[in-house]
Amino acid sequence: MSSEQPPVRPREYDVAIIGYGPVGVTAANLLGARGLSVLVAERDGSVYDRARAIATDEEILRIWQRVGLAERLKQDMLWDKAIDFVDADGESFLSFAPRTRGNGYPPQLFLYQPVLEQVLRQGVERFPNVEVRLRTEVVHQGQDRDGVELTMLDLDAETTTRARVRYVVAADGGSSPTRGRLGIGFEGRTYEDRWLVIDTKVLQEWPEVDRLRFHCNPIRAAVDCPTPLGHHRWEFPVLPGDDETELVTDTAVRRLLTDQGVDPHWVEVLRAVVYSHHVRLAAQWRVGRVFLVGDAAHVMPPWIGQGMSSGVRDVNNLCWKLAGVVHGELPESVLDTYASERMPHVRSMTKAAVFFGRVITERRRAVTAVRDPLFRAAMRAPYVGAFLRDGSWFPETRYAHGLLARSTSRTRAGGLVGQMVPQPWVEAADGTRTRLDDALGSGWALLRAPADRTGTDPAWSRAGVRSLTLLPANSRPAAAAVVDADDVLVPWMRRHRVTTVAVRPDGIVYAAASGRGPLAPPPFAA
Predict the structure, then answer these.
(1) Mind listing the pLDDT tens digit for each residue in 88-128?
(2) CB within 8 A of 108, min separation 6: which ones?
(3) How many CB atoms lie within 10 A of CB 333?
(4) Which CATH architecture has domain 406-513?
(5) Is residue 31 within 8 Å of 124, Cβ to Cβ?
(6) Where are the chain's structural domains?
(7) CA 506 to chain CA mean position, Å
(8) 430 in Cβ contact with 486 (< 8 Å)
(9) pLDDT at position 455 over 70
(10) 219, 304, 415, 493: least CB-packed within 10 angstroms?
(11) In whole angstroms, what is the distance from residue 406 CA to residue 347 CA?
(12) pTM of the predicted protein model
């Protein structure tokens, strides 16, 4: 009789998430809420205690709303702060306050990342189906047609374990070991400019403490940014001839703050570090059953505060599709639409970040002598001024290709396909006031105009998709209907001559009908 023990069979999960920063922890909440068995592997033992991302927007709060954390996270944020670009004399030449895109939250919000991540991690604790392993590094991955096998090293016990998963979501940062093991190229470039970041705790407030200003001084630019919970950040370029070792010293930091009109005794310096800006895009975002998200897939300069937010959009797009495939509701081919939908938006956001970076960091005096009056004139122009002041240049989430019903694309109704549904307050059948996404639930849904008399499309009905009729503001609540309390959705559908829209779980319009023809069928078996 042999004394050898049979090999230990690796534990099985639906999805593994590698990396537990803001993108990975958002994915854990999204997948946990959809009932998948999830394994999280993270090298560090706790939340990184220094701020990196400092801003986000209304769409990201809407994503966190889907896992029940938006209001709690919003408590620790600042918003309704104008953004100013000022010249060498401190005079504004470009100022804007982004207009709302209708997601139900303030358009621009400032955050303190360590606290945000802690709240998101507390959210994951609600889900017994999510197992989090800190101080754990994935050292090997191998996949076949049915799954991925991971070998993980416990950094404290110095022991290895294995796990088998159906899919992997790699949120392991710009230096992503997962991307390296897959041999995926990281195309792009690193800017020559190096930047000093100074994070502080405010001890005594000054008049401009709550203002975000980009000091576009050709001698030395500066970013002066409020962050919540009593923090403030400055960023300065490292100029030719600067000694980076000297630049992070207490003496140099306090000299730079004094130049900004801030008494060094008003703040406690928490961190001073030099880093480089990057523009990089992974050549592939999917290899078999492994998906890259966030900085593992793309990195951009920080000028419009969209690095972290772009990663959160990634997992919001990917996670419901993974859940649909795992639950047998969607074909696996749907997973290819993750990259085809997200890549164009990331490229647009990166271009916007690069453009405003050039505005901020321009050092040629002749150029700035033209730039400043040109922007001031543009701000006064009737249409261009409104475009700049409202932040209308900011790329909105809209998909041209992917998991969308294209059969209606040439109609006015079809023009809504790929757009985000606005999210006003509505009244449910029981009279309670709630945001639209909470009324729709976490799955697919149909929204019908008040005058729609066609009834539920049979294919959507057989699939069990929820259908809600929109009632005008001040209507009496009714079963299978919501009252458009803010008077947003009914005019929106009327303006686009739409009678029915099919909404994906991420709030994107999958299909729309004008009443002149049937609604496109669902992408899943009815």
Answers:
(1) 998 999 888 888 999 999 999 999 999 999 999 999 999 99
(2) 55, 57, 58, 79, 81, 83, 97, 98, 305, 391
(3) 10
(4) 3-Layer(aba) Sandwich (3.40)
(5) no
(6) 11-76+107-185+280-355, 406-513
(7) 12
(8) no
(9) no
(10) 219
(11) 23
(12) 0.93
Distance CA 293, CA 311 (A): 6
At residue 18, what is the residue type? I
Identical fold, 11-76+107-185+280-355 and 406-513: no
Say which DSSP state 371 is in: H
pLDDT at 190 over 70: no
The domain over range 11-76+107-185+280-355 is classified in CATH as 3.50.50.60: yes
Look at the alpha carbons of 205, 207, 211, 217 in this order and tell me if their dihedral is positive or negative: negative
Pairing of strands 466-471, 445-448: parallel
Residue 177 identity: P
pLDDT of residue 155: 97
Task: Give the C-alpha separation, 252 to 259, whole Å.
Answer: 11
DSSP symbol at 351 = H
How many CB atoms are closer than 10 A to CB 507? 22
CA–CA dist 458, 510 (Å, integer): 17
Rounding to the nearest 10 degrees, give the CA dihedral for residues 485, 394, 315, 337. Answer: 100
What is the average per-residue pLDDT within 488-508? 94
The Cα 299–Cα 311 span in angstroms is: 9
Strand partners, 17: 40, 169
State the Cα–Cα distance between residues 197 and 222, nearest whole angstrom: 10
Let me know: does 46 contact 89? Beta carbons within 8 Å: no
- Please report where in the chains the tokens 């969209």 appear, as a residue: 306
What digits encode the pLDDT tens for the residues 209-243? 988 899 999 999 999 999 999 999 999 999 999 99
Tokens standing for residue 20:
């537990």
> How far apart are the C-alpha atoms of 203 and 45, rounded to whole Å?
30
Tokens of 145: 């047609």
Between CA 411 and CA 514 the distance in angstroms is 8
Query: Token pair for residue 176?
Result: 């992503």
The pLDDT, as a whole number, for residue 189 is: 65
Q: Are 294 and 23 in contact (CB under 8 A)?
A: yes
The pairing of beta strand 509-513 with beta strand 500-503: antiparallel
Q: Taking the CA atoms of 173, 175, 177 and 182 in sequence, report the sign of the dihedral they define.
A: positive
- CA of 340: how far to CAs of 126, 305, 353, 439, in Å? 32, 23, 21, 29
Contact between 315 and 23 (Cβ < 8 Å): yes
What residues have CB less than 8 Å from 51, skipping those under 6 apart?
112, 113, 114, 199, 227, 231, 233
